[in-house]
Amino acid sequence: MIVDRWTSQLDEITNLFKKDFSTLSAKRLDWKPNNATWSIAQNLHHLIVINESYIPVLKLARQKQQKLPWISKFDFVVNFIGNTVLKAVDPGRRKKVKTFSIWEPSSTDLGTNIFVRFEEHQAELKKLIANSLDLVEQKTVIVSPANKNLVYKLDTAFDILVTHERRHYEQAKESLNLRPA
Predict the structure, then answer these.
(1) What pLDDT score does 35 carry?
(2) 136, 144, 156 from 141: Cα distances, Å
(3) Which of 1, 5, 25, 65 is deepest in the core (most CB within 10 A)?
(4) If you ran DSSP here, which 8-state letter would residue 103 be given?
(5) What stretches of 46-169 adopt beta strand conformation (E)?
(6) Virtual CA dihedral for 121, 123, 129, 131, nearest 10 degrees?
């Protein structure tokens, strides 16, 4: 089942974050090599913020109250936008992409509690995905929480979220490797 693909990837990413970072001190989790780079904790917080921003979008889609822009009527446009966003968040893509301001992580220290919050969030995200299977099967088109002109199918949105999490896991690993001994 397609839902299992996403939920198993979320489990894998959650376990990778825990395995590689959960034993670090709060100071190390919050350390940033420079102002242009997020800390490990900020990467985790960013994932929580971005994923939670999809909850109201999915509620509107479920209630059939979404206000879709006219471009959503054209499958080729919807597919093109979705594939473009998916490629932009690919972990193998080395080019940095500036996030939308609504998805900025906290600038305050987040500490080790971020792992509890992340695990709880991942469990909720898996439930949200599992409860959205009917919308996926209906090929529901949604708008991005960050920009109402970015439209893509719900299955692509879930691909984007999972791929995006993997990208930030890789960024967190890079941040760890930049830390002076």
Answers:
(1) 80
(2) 9, 10, 9
(3) 5
(4) G
(5) 141-143, 151-153
(6) -120
Cβ atoms of 109 and 26 closer than 8 Å: yes
Kindly give, in sequence order, each residue whose CB lies less than 8 Å from that of residue 46, ignoring residues fewer than 6 positions away. 38, 99, 103, 104, 105, 168
Q: How many domains does the chain have?
A: 1
- β-partners of residue 141 are 153
Q: Which residues of 18-46 are buried (b: 16+ CB within 10 A; e: fewer)?
A: eeebeebeeebbbbbeeeeebbbbbbbbb
Tokens encoding 121? 């969030």
Domain that holds residue 48: 2-178
Show the tokens assigned to 100.
Answer: 């939308």
Which residues are CB-contacts of 45 (< 8 A; sequence separation ≥ 6)?
Answer: 105, 106, 110, 114, 117
Q: Model-level pTM?
A: 0.90
The CATH number given to whatever domain includes residue 168 is 1.20.120.450
Number of H helices, E strands in the chain: 8, 2
For residue 37, what pLDDT band results from cuts at 50, 70 and 90?
confident
SS3 state of residue 86: helix
Residue 90, pLDDT above cutoff 60: yes
